[in-house]
Amino acid sequence: MEKWENNKAWFLVSPVIVIVAFSAILPLMTVVNYSVQDIFGPGNRVFVGTEWFKEILTSPRLHSALWRQFIFSGLVLLIEIPLGVLIALMMPKKGWGVSASLVMLALPLLIPWNVIGTIWVIFTRPDIGLLGATVNGLGIAFDHTASPTDAWITIVLMEVWHWTPLVALLAYAGLRAIPEAYYQAAKIDGASAWSTFRYIQLPKMRGVLTIAVLLRFMDSFMIYAEPFVLTGGGPGDSTTFLSIYLVKVALGQFDLGPAAAFSLVYFLIVLLFCWLFYQALQNVGRGEKT
Q1: Residue 87 lies in a domain
Q2: Burial, 156: exposed, middle or buried (Cβ in 10 Å; 0-12, 13-18, 19+)?
Q3: Does a structural domain hold residue 140?
Q4: Which long-range contacts (CB under 8 A, 24 or more apart) does 112-117 make?
Q5: Tens digits of per-residue pLDDT, 166-192?
Q6: Is the pLDDT of residue 87 over 90?
Q7: How far apart are CA 154 and CA 149, in angstroms?
Q8: For residue 74, is it within any domain?
Q9: How many structural domains are present in the chain?
Q10: Could you tell me the pTM of the whole model?
Q11: In which domain, by residue range, is 153 found?
């Protein structure tokens, strides 16, 4: 009977395993198959081994897109994580303000990604956009379609506006899970606000902040819809991130073999850095406990 109870969980999750197999594993194997072949047409293909991987890994355009992606994800994390924690600390702890704050924070997260890009296209237009026209009216030339710097500023602002609420909600959940006894003890000891944050709130939020860092890194590293709608990867290639570069190779040039090889490399890069982030955060946690 005990053995059945132990295996019951596997029986219950088996439908999920089957769904994941069809929605993730099988398409992944198809990509692996394409990555080692040169496809000329239906039923006309040649096995090329690792040729596409060598071509992709030595591509200067890929290296440029990779550096742009790292810079973008780094900027996003450096802004969103501290800002999200700060917003969570400023949110009310009880009363009607809690519900109002949570609803207001969640609104950007409910908007589809392609709509986010469209909103910011209109918002930053230099002729009629509220932000674009205001900045240009102040005598500051601003046009995200012509200036790479303006395009980067716009995309970073858009990403921060869209996803900082997720970090804030996670951080707020971590703060609400801290027992009141900790705050009472800190008050008795005369701890300052910074000491309370450093030694009570921040350690207790480590779990949710780990989730926030991993989620935001994965999502920002795979961003596509928003910058594609906003800039299309331009001006030039200044905002051509890895996902946009992949789409250009796969659909623009219809090079399925190189695109499949790049997809696998892309996938492994995301997994590697998520693992490194997770290990680093776990080591920090163990170091503080000792």
Answers
A1: yes
A2: middle
A3: yes
A4: 113/225, 113/226, 114/225, 114/226, 114/229, 116/158, 116/162, 116/225, 116/226, 116/229, 117/158, 117/225, 117/226, 117/227, 117/228, 117/229, 117/230
A5: 999 999 999 998 888 988 888 888 888
A6: yes
A7: 9
A8: yes
A9: 1
A10: 0.84
A11: 59-289
